[in-house]
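Lab notes, practical 5.
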Amino acid sequence: MNSYDFEQGFIAAIQEFSHSLYQEMVGGKKVSKNDRMCLLTSVGEIRMNKHHPLAVSPGGFKISAYLQEQLCRLGSKMTFEESEEELNQLLGIRANAKQVERLCHHYGEALEHINWREAYAGGAQPRAQPGKPLYLLIVFTR
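Output from the prediction step:
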């Protein structure tokens, strides 16, 4: 066996383990067809109870919030078809270009409804309470 084949097999084993672990953590394998749903995640498709807290995903898509972010990131940097190919190749997830396109259009339209003047003029400013620690998450984008 050469190093390429070894590493490829290792990554496949890690991905399979990640999927199994995620699936085990949320259950869903023994849930009846009427009470379960499938959610596409960064480790593949996961079956879970419809009422599980992780079954809720933004935008009404059956795609996890984390994977939605990754799909939008890919879709904003390259064509939707190229995004599909990269996602399938790098993560081994079967998402198609149409899913990437729908997500990008959905969130692009949502951005049109933001009042940016209000957001920058104090609408999104943190409010600190005296004597209590203030935690900030700073996100830098290019």
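Observations recorded by the TA: The CA atoms of residues 16 and 79 lie 28 Å apart. The helical segments are 3-26, 65-77, 80-91, 97-112, 116-123.
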